Amino acid sequence: MFPSCSLLLGTLRGISIIVPLPSSSCTGVPRNVNMEKLQTGYLFPEIGMRESEHTQKYPHARLIRLGIGDTTEPIPDIITSAMAEHVYALSTVKGYRGYGAEQGNMELRMAIAETFYRNLGVKGNEVFVSDGAQCDISRLQQLLLGSNVSMAVQDPSFPAYIDCGVIVGRAGNFQEKTGTYDNIVYMKCGPENNFFPDLSTTSRTDIIFFCSPNNPTGYAASRQQLQQLVDFAKANGSMIIYDSAYAAYVTDDSPRSIFEIPGAKEVAIEISSFSKFAGFTGVRLGWTVVPEELLYSNGFPVMKDYNRIVCTCFNGASSVAQAGGLACLSKEGYQALTTVVDYYKGNAEILVDAFSSLGLKAYGGKNAPYVWVHFPGMSSWDVFNEILEKTHIVTIPGRGFGPGGEGYVRVSGFGHRERILEASMRLKNLYK
Amino acid sequence: MSVMQQLSSPISSSSSAFLSHSSFNSRSKNVSVPARRIGICKCVAVPQEAQTAYTTKVSRNANMAKLQAGYLFPEIARRKAAHLLKYPDAQVISLGIGDTTEPIPEVITSAMAKRAHELSTLEGYSGYGAEQGEKALRAAICSTFYSGLTVDQDDIFVSDGAKCDISRLQVLFGANVTMAVQDPSYPAYVDSSVIMGQTGQFQKDAQKFQRIEYMKCTPENGFFPDLSSVPRADIIFFCSPNNPTGAAATREQLTQLVKFAKHNGSIIVYDSAYAMYTSEDNPRSIYEIPGAKEVAIETSSFSKYAGFTGVRLGWTVVPKILLFSDGFPVAKDFNRIVCTSFNGASNIAQAGGLACLSPEGLKAMRDVVGFYKENTNIIMETFDSLGFKVYGGKNAPYVWVHFPGRNSWDVFSEILEKTHVVTTPGSGFGPAGDGFIRVSAFGHRKNVLEACKRFKQLYK
Questions:
Q1: The model's pTM
Q2: A77-89 and A319-328 helices, crossing angle to 10°
Q3: FRET label pair with A426: which of A74, A290, B11, B194, CA 20 to 30 Å apart?
Q4: Coil, strand, or helix at residue B448?
C-alpha cells in the first residue's frame, strides 16, 4: 500500500522507493484490486531479471540458460521460406491480404485438425488459431469464463493459469503460510502419487487446468489417468482446459490429445502451440480447440461465446505466422520439425543422465523438454541461487510453479547441444 | 420463433436480432456453427433424441449474455456473404469493413522476409522477444510519433494491434470502473467493457448499456461532446481522427478534454490509429496537449498506415506518471498484464514495423495513406454532389453520410441491394450513429470510382 498519491520509483532488494507527489497528480481511478493480489512479478521475467543481475556481477562468466523454456535452434528453411514467400506476396496486388478471419485461415485450421486430431472427430471449424497459448489462456480465463467460476490447477503448474485467474478476480486472497490462493483448488502432483492427482479427494470446481506432457514436471499422463480425469469432469459437470503444448515431445504411448479419450469432447477445451514444436516462440502461433459439443449449464455452446471473444478482443494471428504454420504441417515441414524436437529431447536425456549420475532424482525429460530435479528438504530458490552462483547455469526454482514445486528445480532442455554438455559437466563438478 | 425458423427466414434489414444471443433459449440445443468470414452461417440441426445432450455444470459468463448481437464487422461480412449468394454474378464492392487493399511497400516486406530467413540461421535465430516489444522498434515509434513530446521509449508497449490492446486495457482496469465513450464509436470499446462486466444491462429503448456514459457526437456539436453535461466516468475512450465519423478534434477541444479528465480524475484512452490521415492542423497525439501524460493512455496501430491489418502490429503508450488513485503506476500493472496475458507481437511483424519507420518506409506509408485519402475525396465529392450532408473524410479514411430520419440498417440494405456496395450502418457504432452511413475509403481506385458511379445512379 502506498501513501495516497506517491510515485513508486522502483524496488531495491525488496524495498519500495516511494516519492510523495502533490495529490493532484493521481487520477481518481481505483487500481484493480485483483492486481494487488499478485504476489510478485510474473515468474519468467523475474528469472530474466536474476539472469541480468548475475551477468552484471560476473560479466565474464559464460552463462548457460536452462531456465525460461526458450527455443534456440533455427527454424527449418522450408518454413521460413514459406513465410518469406507470403510476405513478398503482400507486396503484390494479387497476393495482398488484409484482415484475415479472426478464427484463423481455414486451410490452417483444417491442417491442424488433420495433423493433430485425425480420427478424433475434431473439425476445422472447432480449431481457433491464435498468437499463442499464453494469450489463449488469458482469453479463456479473463474474457470467456469470467470471474464467477471456480478453478483447479495441478500443483505445480504453468503460472499463467493461476495468475490470469487472480487478475480476473477468481482466486480470492493469497495465504502466505500455505502459498496458495483461497479460492483455487490445488491438485498436488508429485512422485508420491505418480504425478497424477488423487481425484477422489479433489473438490469439484467448474474449470480444471491440466497440462500434459506437464510443464514443469515433464510427466505425461497415461490413457488410464486421462480417462479418470474425463470421467471426473463428467461426473462433476466440470470443464477441462487441457494444455497440450508439449504433445510433440511424447516418446511413449501416452495420449497426445485429450480428445483421444472417449467423452472428452463434451468436457474439454484443448490449447496448444507452435512455440515448442516449431521454434515459434518469437513468431507467435498457437491454437485452441473448442468442441461443438461443449455446452454451458444452460445449453449454450461454449464455442459461440469463444468465437465472439475472438472476434471482439482479438484480430487473428499474424498472416505471416499462419503461412509458416501451414508449412510446418506439410509433410516435409513436419519431418524437419521432428528432427528439431528430437534434438531437444536428446538434450533433456543428457540432463536427466547428468543429475541421475549424481544420485539426484530427476523426473520428466522423457516425454517433455523439462527435467524436474528433486532436492529434498531444500528451498528451491536456494538451490536456484546456488546453481547460478556456482555454475553460472540458470534454472527455475520449482516454487515458482506453486507450493507443490518446493524442493524441486526445473531444468529446460532447450539449448545448443554443446551448451547442454557444458552444463552437464559443470553440474557434475558442483554436486560430485 | 425457433432458432431454426429464424435462420431459414430471409435476412431482415432491421437489426440482426436473429443472430443475437437472446434467440438462444435454455431449451434450444440447435447449434449454429460460427460463420466463416467469407462463408455462410451453417446450421447443424440436432435430431429429437439428442435433445438430452450432455451439458457441463459451468455457468455461462453472464456478461457474454448481455451482448446484443455478434460483433459488428463479422455481421457486415455475413450480410455481404448472404448478398453474394443471392446475386452470385454481382460485382460486390466492399466499402464497409475498413480493410486495407493496397499492397505493402517492398521496403517493408523485404525487411520481414529478411527476418524470416534469419530465423533459419544460428546467428539470426531468436526465440521469445521482450513482451513489451523490441527496443529498436519502441525507440523508432517514440522518435517518429512522439518526437518533442517527452514520451520515453519505455512508455511504449508494442502489441499485435489496437483491438487486442483495448481488451488488455479492460482486463487491466477490471470490472469496477465506469466508462464513457463517444457516441458513435468503434464497437470494441463498448463490447470489451460489457465482457469485463463494467456495463450493467442493455436498455432496449435507449439502445444503450446502463452504466456506460455515451457522449453524443453529432453535427450539432461539431462531433465533440458537450463536456459540461457529461457525468464523471473513470475511463474515457476517445478516438481522433474518429472512427466512424472522421472528425478530428482540435487542439482546443483536446485541451478541454484533458482538463475535464484532470478535474474528474479520469483516465483517457486515446485511440490515434488514424493520426497519419490528418491533413489539417489537428493534434496527432494526445500528448501534444500539456498535462496529458498524467491522464492519458494512447493506443495506435500500423494497420491503416502500412496495410498491416493481417500482419498485426500496434502499440500503446502508458506514461510513467499516470497513476491510479492510490499512487500506483498504471504502467507497472499494464506491464504485468503484458507479461502474463500476452507474449509479444510477432518478431517478423516487428521487423516490418521497424522498416515502416525508416525514412524510405515512412515515405512509402505516406504515399499509401495519400492514396486512400484521395479515395476519400472522391467519395466525399460524390455524396456532396448528390446533395447529402457529408462529414469526416478530410482527416480520416471514413466518410460519414447523413440520411436524416432513416434507419441506418435500412439504408445499408438499400445500398447493398441496389448498388451491390457494402457500407456500414451508423447505428452499429452506437445509437447516435443512426441516420448515418459510414463509407470506408479503403479499396482499389477503380472499385471506388465504380462504387461512386453506382451511388450517383441510385441517388440522382
A1: 0.91
A2: 140
A3: A74
A4: helix
Residues 286-305 of B with CB under 8 A from A: 294-295
Mean pLDDT to the nearest integer, A180-189: 97
Nearest to B440 by CA among A311, A99, A90, A86: A99
One DSSP character per residue, B307-341 reads TTTTT--EEEE--TT-B-TTS-BHHHHHHHHHHHH
Assess B333–A contact: CB distance below 8 Å, yes or no: yes
**Grid cell for residue B217:** 457526437
Q: Among A40-49, B39-48, B149-158, B159-168, whose mean pLDDT is lowest? A: B39-48
Taking the Cβ of residue B116 and every Cβ of chain A, the question of whether any pair is shorter than 8 Å is answered with: yes
- B345-390 pLDDT, tens digit each: 999 999 999 999 999 999 999 999 999 999 999 999 999 999 999 9
CB contact under 8 A, B340 and A297: no
Query: Could you report the predicted ipTM of this complex, rounded to two decimals?
Result: 0.94
Q: Is B125 on the interface with A (CB under 8 A)?
A: yes
The residue in chain B having the minimum alpha-carbon distance to the alpha carbon of residue A137 is B341
**Which of chain B's residues have a Cβ under 8 Å away from the Cβ of A79?**
120
Within 283-312 of A, beta carbons closer than 8 Å to B belong to: 283-284, 292-301, 303-305, 307-309, 311-312
**What is the 3-state composition of chain A as percent helix, strand, coil, each rounded to the nearest 5?**
45, 15, 40
**Closest Cβ–Cβ partner in B24, B59, B340 for A42:** B340
Mutate to test the interface with A, among B21, B29, B323, B445 (most CBs of A within 10 A): B323
Whole-number Å distance between alpha carbons of A65 and A48: 10
- Please check whether residue B234 is in contact with residue A29, taking contact to mean a CB–CB distance below 8 angstroms: yes
C-alpha cell at B66: 448481455
| A6's grid cell | 506517491
Beta-carbon separation of B164 and A317 below 8 A: no
| Residues 70-129, chain A, touching B (beta carbon < 8 A) | 70-77, 79-81, 83-84, 87-88, 90-93, 95-103, 106, 125
What CA–CA distances, in Å, run from B356 to A96, A253, B137, B315, B353? 17, 49, 10, 14, 5
Return the ∠ at Cα B36 (arms to B31 and B37), rounded to 5°. 140
**Cell numbers for A43:** 515468474
| A66-99 confidence digits (pLDDT tens) | 999 999 999 999 999 999 999 999 999 999 999 9
Q: Which of B53, B71, B346 sits opposite A321 (nearest CB)?
A: B346
Spatial CB neighbours of A100, under 8 Å, sequence gap ≥ 6: A316, A319, A322, B37, B310
Which helix (H) or strand (E) covers residue A337, if one does? helix A331-357
Buried b / exposed e along A59-72 (16+ C-beta atoms within 10 A)? eeeebbbbbbbbbb
Q: Among A164-168, B14-18, B156-160, B295-299, which stretch is predicted with the lowest mean pLDDT?
A: B14-18
Tell me which H or E stretch contains B350. helix B347-356
**Closest residue by Cα to residue B239 from B271, B210, B267:** B271
Sheet of A151-155, strand order: A127-130, A286-289, A268-273, A239-243, A207-211, A151-155, A184-188
Spatial contact of B345 and B162, defined as CB atoms under 8 Å apart: no
Strands A268-273 and A239-243, bridge-based pairing: parallel
Nine-digit cell at A81?
Answer: 521460406
Q: Read off the pLDDT of residues A187-219 as tens digits, 9 standing for 90 and up.
A: 999 999 999 999 999 999 999 999 999 999 999
Q: What percent of chain A is predicted at pLDDT more than 90?
A: 92
Running DSSP on this structure, what letter comes out for residue A74?
Answer: P
Would you state the cell numbers that stand for residue B324, as one nine-digit string? 491510479
